[in-house]
Specification:
The complex is a heterotrimer of chains A (708), B (210) and C (111). Chain A is mainly alpha-helical. Chain A has a single domain, classed as Cytochrome C Oxidase, Chain A (Up-down Bundle), CATH 1.20.210. Chain A has 23 helices and 2 strands. The longest helix of chain A has 35 residues. Chain B has a single domain, classed as Four Helix Bundle (Hemerythrin (Met), subunit A), CATH 1.20.120. Chain B starts with 17 loop residues before the first helix and ends with a helix. By secondary structure, chain C is mainly α. Chain C is built from 3 helices and no strands. The chains are: A mainly alpha (708), B mainly alpha (210), C mainly alpha (111). Chains B and C meet through helix 1, helix 3 and helix 6 of B and helix 1, helix 2 and helix 3 of C.
Chain lengths: 708, 210, 111
Amino acid sequence: MSWETIFGQLGWDSLVFTGAIKHPSASEFVAFGAGSIVVLGAVAVVVLLTVMRWWGPLWRDWLTSVDHKKIGIMYIVIALVMFLRALIEAGVMRSQQLAAYDSAGYLSADHFGQLFTTHGTIMIFFVAMPFITGLMNYVMPLQIGARDVSFPLLNAISLMLTAAGAGLIMVSLVVGEFSTGGWSGYPPFTGIEFSPGEGVDYWIWSVTLASIGSTLTGLNFAVTLYKKRCPGMDMFRMPLFCWTTLCTSILMIFAMAPLTVATIMLALDRYAGFHFFTNGDGGNMMNFANLFWLFGHPEVYILLLPALGVWSEVVSTFVGKRIYGYTSLVYATMCIAVLSFGVWLHHFFTMGQSANVNAIFGIATMIIGIPTGVKVYDWILTMFRGRIRITTPMLFHINFLLTFVLGGMTGILLANPTVDFQVHNSLFLIAHFHNMIIPGVLFGMFAAVQYWFPKAFGFRLHEGWGKAAFWSLAPGFLLAFFPLYWLGMNGAPRRTVMWADPAFYPWLALAMLGAVLLLVGTVFLLVQIGVSIRQRRQLAVPLGDPWDGRSLEWSIPSPPPAWNFAVVPQVDGRDAFTEAKKNGQAYRSPAAYSDIEMPCNSMVAPLIGIFTFTLSFALVWHIWWLVVVSFIVVWGVVIARSFVAQTNEIIPASRIEAEHEAFLAAARATPGVTRDLEMSPQNRGKAAPDRLGQPGQKRPDDVLESAI
Amino acid sequence: MNAPQPLHPGVNLDVTDRKSHEKASEVIFGFWIFLMSDLVLFAALFATYAAMSTQGIAQGPTPSEVFDLGSAFIETLLLLLSSFTFGFAILAMKYSTSRLRLLAWLGVTALLGAAFVAFELHDYYVMIVNNDAWPQTSGFLSAYYLLTGTHAVHVSAGILWMIVLAVQVMTLGPNPLVKLRLLRLALFWHMLDIVWVGIFTFVYLFGVAA
Amino acid sequence: MNLKTVSNSAPPAESRHEQRNYCIGLCLALVLTLIAFGLVWLKMVSGTQALAVLGVLALVQVVVHLRFFLHIDLGKSHRDDLMLILFTSLILLLIVLGTIWILWDQHARMM
């Protein structure tokens, strides 16, 4: 058997380390360093797991788990790890641009191309997507009073597909190179003729895995929201985060398919010589842009909508008021979701269609500003006459309102095709979408972590470090990206490895400073987690309601038991837990307990994860025997699983009763804290009624609504 | 008529098997959503084909030169009949206690499906031999092979799924788990026939008529 | 629900009703298929006219399949599914028509 039969195109030269030895240069050393970090990191994790004897618990309690809460946490861990990598890459790119005034800088053009490609691909598919998916996984079932999602095993499989994609992109740091075609991977540049190496194949398969995982997630969440709401929870009684989850899920169901089609066609072009996007023989590369953005634009809202849901939860909790304009927020969310399918062409205004086509899509794009504006007004009006507590999530929210509106304005500018022709492919565009995604999505996720962390782990995050992180992240963002607007308007193109205009230098230096601040803020967030773990006794909130929360997830212990709700709750209005607390019905013992049927752990998902990883790795390197074996194993596992009849276990009522009654007794015995003491160690997770919420006294939102 | 209201697409088991019926609504809704997502995938393929079948011919043959309507007609009949026989398989599962009747209808369906795939492969063979119409020949043919090929792969996957379920009917018996799977496979199969309506109309018939 | 009124003798009648549904569906689909193929075989349609006529026939046949094979109707209990189908149709239309419009427009300007 020849080498190629066994290892395909894989060779010793594929290793990133041989490059640095054979052709030493600064660029190769950076690649060498990155590859070493991956290898050393992997070794460190293996050693740690072995020394601490954590392999067993990791497998039993986490990797094989089908519990939506654990799956959610694992998603967010993936997102954080990948975020660190992509953030460092951004810093490296900034420093390259700073160094590359009138010189080549220290990175080769190819290496720089790989950096902006992985930065974009990772930030979208392996940071933002797992972050929102993890959050929706954790929070949504708790908010609708469900014990799990509709298809728990499918949920675990989605996670493992995403993990396999993330793993593939990490492996590309050590073995071979990644694509230089940008996160949108336009052919013909990414076709076999102009990108013959393995880079684009890495991009194709990691994105395809993530895409399939997201489709399944969307399906799962939509069914959960339709079929698993607790009694009394009508659609229009769901918390707004659930509404945004529903709209995001629907977008995932419909938007990921065009991406899969586009990547598969590109793969057929590359592997089998088809002519979908080639230059000659009837290929049409414009169709790639068309298909990619058919996915890409809804994707923007897939990311944004859950964050908008987070903002709605955060603002109403930390203002202590019912959300203003619930119905309008729901309809605005729906409008955004539907409209997002009708604007994809604005990503390629300059590709050569006639002015009429551009005009229609430009107008459709501007219309999205209307429902988004409705949301902004609703949040502001929720704060109006409320008792605002300036906590870390609230700081992020106020920062979001200010900066997101600015980003929206530049979006309206870009929606005008004539303006777009001037600034397309410039740093103006880069500034615009970072302006939407960082304060909107990323900071939304950071706020969500601050807000729901005590629910997931039973202790609050240290507030001081949280504020410190905010005060370096928020200015860091402004410094890093507002100069890019200016640079873009002055003609600085995106994805530029070197440049020659001295006027750009101060602005690039400012942006570099901003990138440093963003890095520092991220370090502060990590420090915050470390400090909070050390101080977890002072910060403990086992009674589960540290913020005087309004929806059902705050009515159960922190961390919640595997079955979430000892007895499935019955609700009869919005803000169910707030109403229960007001009427004195919170923490009451239920009439009776019954056995609960919960799904068993399963090794199906991790097996599928492992073998889809080997499948895609083998596809990248043309190791055909491994492709066949992996494919058969993946489907063999699925078929074998379908013969297993017993997939659930019964948790006896006595155990549930004992645990839940202990929690209720502790909750009744503990005095609640007022909001002024929210951040003190006295806060054990039980809230005292707010003075504005006393019975008999008119609440501020009632006053406001009767005035309008 | 006071027939009970159906709770999900496809045949409902309400009358004969309440236990399975109550569990059906959630899984069938989930599968229905999957089918819709799959339809979007086919929509993207159809849209691509629509553009490439006129703009992407290059030096290759045109649609009317390579398509054989007679073969397409036979394929249409085979798939339509298989949809019909699957319906009777589901009715056998619902009303009959005999496993044999269910298995027989499933067998007929699988054979019709296999014949459909065989005819399609034969089409490809003829196109390649007579017209040198490889998928690599032109954008039009790339799009044609991907669209019909994706459909054929779906049908083949459906046949494999049918075999697995037939084994489960024999070993596990028609328990609720297996019954709900058969209901889902039925939806899958009928949906593939709907996609085929699009293919024979817009690919074959319009390809020849235009 | 009327489930309780369905007695043991009901299944055969119900069964015959459902069998008849499949038969009606098969016949209608066969007729529509034959018309579509016949029109093209006899060269009675061509060009855009063919697209319109064949498109309408296909649409009707899809509705027949949905009604008689997938048992979709306008009943109240079916609203979730119906909404889903309608929304999917909207997305399908946007994708197909949008793509065709855009690619044709670009193509026309490249000639």
